[in-house]
Amino acid sequence: MKLPLSYYSAQDVLFLAQDLLGKVLFTEINGEITAGIIVETEAYNGIYDKASHAYGGKRTDRTETLYSHGGISYVYLCYGIHHLFNVVTSVEDEPHAVLVRAIEPLIGTEIMENRRNMPASKAAISSGPGSAAKALGIDRSFNKKDLTGNEIWIEDHGIQYPSEDIVTGPRIGVAYAQEDALLPWRFFVKGNKYVSKPNII
DNA sequence: CACTTGATGTTCT
DNA sequence: GAACATCAAGTGA
Questions:
Q1: What Rg, from alpha-carbon coordinates, does chain A have?
Q2: Where does the pLDDT of residue A197 fall: very low under 50, low under 70, confident under 90, or very high at 90 and above?
Q3: Nucleotides of B under 7 A from a protein CB
Q4: pLDDT per position as a tens digit, A141-182
Q5: Which one, of A104, A94, A48, A105, lies nearest residue A71 by Cα?
Q6: Parallel, antiparallel, or unpaired: how do β-strands A96-107 and A82-89 relate?
Q7: Is there a contact between A83 and A140 (Cβ–Cβ < 8 Å)?
Q8: Which residue approaches C4 most closely, CA to C1'?
Q9: Which residue, among A48, A37, A162, has the nearest Cα to A95 in the 3D structure?
């Protein structure tokens, strides 16, 4: 059930970003397990992508994680407040990553309600990358974790959305990336209420 | 409903 | 000093 390391080695980050929709993201913290179905992702295409932290081959202490082999997590702090969770894909020195932007709560919803201080009936509990990470209890201690380990991992529960329900569009919040901001590298499930921003075509 | 605003770490200028 | 892969609470219609 847990996705094997080989799954993350695929070098086509666009395929993986789409394929991760419907997969189930788990975390276990102090014995508390929470999980949610991934319903929204964005692809970041390594050194050729102006919206990527690794654009142009940039390496800093923070981005070093992106250059590892696929199958680990990349968590960083955005706007000084929010933790954003990414799946590092491809092989070593190919800094491709998939940002998880929204999940649908599946397991441990009461724990998520406590973390978010709002009822799970509100879509905002896990809509948007900062909220989804917080609902799962992800913070920077989850950076560079092995996704086949027992703290954070992804399972395949056989959930598959019909292709007509998978919608692509330009990525959110990357206007600074100029022409790359227009690339249709955001993938989400049509009509799912946990999807952030415009969720209709 | 649309818009405004405050919170504030990391990185680059 | 400024910009940034954001959120939630507030305002005013």
A1: 15
A2: confident
A3: 7-12
A4: 999 999 999 999 999 999 999 999 999 999 999 999 999 999
A5: A94
A6: antiparallel
A7: yes
A8: A79
A9: A48
pLDDT per residue as tens digits for the range A50-84: 999 999 999 999 999 999 999 999 999 999 999 99
Domain at A5-189: CATH architecture: Roll (3.10)
Amino acid at A120: A
**Residues, chain A, total?**
201
Lookup result for tokens 């991760």: A20
φ/ψ bin of A23: left (φ > 0), alpha (ψ from -120 to 50), beta (otherwise) = beta
Residue ranges in chain A assigned as alpha helix (H): 13-19, 109-116, 129-135
Counting Cβ atoms within 10 Å, is residue A73 exposed (0-12), middle (13-18) or buried (19+)?
buried
The set of strand C positions with any atom below 7 Å of a protein CB reads 3-9
Q: Where are the domains of chain A?
A: 5-189
- A40 Cβ nearer than 7 Å to chain C strand: no
- Tell me the average pLDDT across A184-198: 92
* Contact between the CB of A200 and strand B at under 7 Å: no
Nucleotide nearest to A53 (CA to C1'): C5
Distance A111 CA to B8 C1' (A): 27
Side chain identity, residue A130: G
Q: Is the pLDDT of residue A201 over 60?
A: no
